[in-house]
Amino acid sequence: MSFSSLMTSGLIALNKKNHAQGNAIFNTLQQFSSAVGTALAGTLIAISQNVQSLRKPIATSIGARWTFIVLFILLICSLIIRLIFVPKYKDANKN
Fold it and tell me: Alpha-carbon distance 90 to 42, whole Å?
C-alpha cells in the first residue's frame, strides 16, 4: 500500500532525466520482493502442512498464521532499518 508513495518520494530525489531509470528500478524491486514474499509464504505453509499429526486444514491455518507473523516481523525490521540507516534526501530538482 505504501509502495506508490515510497516510489514518488524516491523519484523526487532524482533528476528529471533519471526518472525513467528510477521507475524501472522500483518496478523491478517490487516484482522481485513480491516473488520472494510469495515463495516465503508458500514455504512456511508447506512446512506446516507436512506435520503428520495434524489434519490438512488445521495445518494450513497454522501455516498461514506463522506466515503472517514472519512477514509482519520482516515489515517491522525493514521499517527500523529505514529509520536508522536511510538518510533524509534533498530534492534534486531544486536549484
Answer: 40
Indicate the number of domains in the chain: 1
For the residues of 68-94, what is the DSSP string, one character each? HHHHHHHHHHHHHHHHHHPPPP--TT-
Q: Is the pLDDT of residue 3 over 60?
A: no
pLDDT digits (tens, 9 = 90+) for 14-56: 888 988 898 899 889 989 999 999 999 999 999 999 987 889 9
Distance CA 7, CA 10 (A): 5
For residue 43, is it within any domain?
Answer: yes
Say if 90 falls within a structural domain: no
Whether residue 62 is contained in a domain is answered as: yes
